[in-house]
């Protein structure tokens, strides 16, 4: 079985997920992991799939997606691999602040400097009537190497969040 990462973007509409996943199923593909989200009217899909026919899917999928209103691309196939084992400690990180450019970058740079892997990141704006502006919320699932002093990492994250006037929630993921 060949694996592909498919990314697709198009105008959101009811039934889009059903059409996309129905096509994958009919083409003999199996979804292993996925993220799908409506981003202010544009629907974005990223899926890891496996397929028995490593030639037909890359050839046929872009045209099929175009008919659905999606622009799609596939990463080249590679041999199936087992998920990498988590090496380190898992944490959840959540920040809240008024929206401002560079927030994701500044926080992710602290994580990079400590060798922390971002496993999952979601960010969104929400109305914050009490603040008179948009509230920016960022949530991450992280793997912190066992060699990283967690207190130092947290202190560095708190320092950058203080500079950005952002609140920070930090907690270990329960096994």
Give a description of the structure:
The mean pLDDT is 91. It contains four helices and nine strands; from the N terminus they run βαββαβββαββαβ. Helix 1 (16-26) runs antiparallel to helix 2 and helix 3 runs antiparallel to helix 4. Helices cover 28% and strands 45% of the residues. The chain starts with a strand and ends with a strand. The chain has 175 residues and is α+β, with helices and mostly antiparallel strands. The strands form two sheets. Strands 1, 2, 3, 4 and 5 form a five-stranded antiparallel β-sheet that branches. A hairpin with a 4-residue loop joins strand 7 and strand 8.
First-residue to last-residue Cα separation: 31 Å
| Beta strands, count | 9
One letter per element, helices H and strands E, the order comes to: EHEEHEEEHEEHE
Characterize the main sheet.
Answer: 5 strands, antiparallel
Overall pLDDT score: 91
Uncertain segments of ≥5 residues (pLDDT<50)? none
Question: Strand percentage, roughly?
Answer: 35-45%
Helix proportion range:
25-40%
Going by helix content, strand content and strand pairing, the class is alpha+beta
What is the count of helical runs? 4
Global geometry: flat
Estimated radius of gyration:
20 Å
Topology:
Blueprint: E1 2-11, H1 16-26, E2 29-39, E3 42-51, H2 56-68, E4 70-74, E5 78-79, E6 89-98, H3 103-113, E7 117-128, E8 133-144, H4 150-163, E9 167-172
Helix pairs in contact: 1-2, 3-4
